[in-house]
Design a protein that fits this description.
Layout: E1 14-25, E2 40-51, H1 64-78, E3 81-82, H2 94-104, E4 111-118, E5 124-127
Bound molecules: ligand LPXRUNBV and zinc ion (ZN).
GO molecular function, one term: 6-carboxytetrahydropterin synthase activity
Active site: 36 (proton acceptor), 80 (charge relay system), 119 (charge relay system)
Keywords: Lyase, Metal-binding, Queuosine biosynthesis, Zinc
Length: 132
């Protein structure tokens, strides 16, 4: 009987890194009297996930430090700001903030597959690219 060597499974690999920033916001389009129409602040948690092939020698997609380097300019635009003042974030819901971040992060040789934004410990929004 013929025996074949076990096939190596084809794996999809993702790496993630979490970031935090502090910011104020108000939601301008909520109904009158909604608490979020008032200016208030959050300690935001953002998780960035990328997917790509492994560098055969280094054994990683990119250095985790590359995620931090890519996040840094966005952190500078968001941290200790009023989000409503940031171009493109006039209505800074978690959903629109996650999309804003998604549109601004690129990695050579890898693609962003998930951005998760948590305003509080119990509320978060995740965006993914639509299926090709
Ligand atoms: N789908 C969304 N709903 C809400 C958003 C949002 O971005 N997307 N944002 C808010 C406000 O920013 C609010 O500050 C957060 O609301 P909430 O999760 O209710 O936070 P609390 O800590 O105040 O929760 P309580 O359970 O009321 O204490 C609202 N909704
Ligand atoms: Zn809020």
């Amino acid at each position: 009987m013929e025996t074949r060597p076990a096939k190596k499974p084809v794996l999809v690999t993702e790496i993630s890194r979490a970031f935090t920033f502090e910011a104020a916001h108000r939601l301008p389009n909520v109904p009158e009297g909604h608490k979020c129409s008032r200016m208030h602040g959050h300690s935001y948690n953002v998780e960035v996930t990328i997917r790509g092939p492994l560098d055969p020698r280094l054994g990683w997609i990119v250095d985790f430090a590359e995620l931090t380097a890519a996040w840094q300019p966005l952190h500078a635009q968001l941290d200790h700001r009023t989000l409503n003042d940031v171009p493109g974030l006039e209505n800074p819901t978690s959903e629109l903030l996650a999309a804003w971040i998604f549109e601004r992060l690129t990695f050579p040789g890898a693609r962003v597959v998930k951005i998760r934004v948590a305003e509080t410990c119990t509320s978060a929004c995740t965006v993914y690219p639509a299926e090709d």
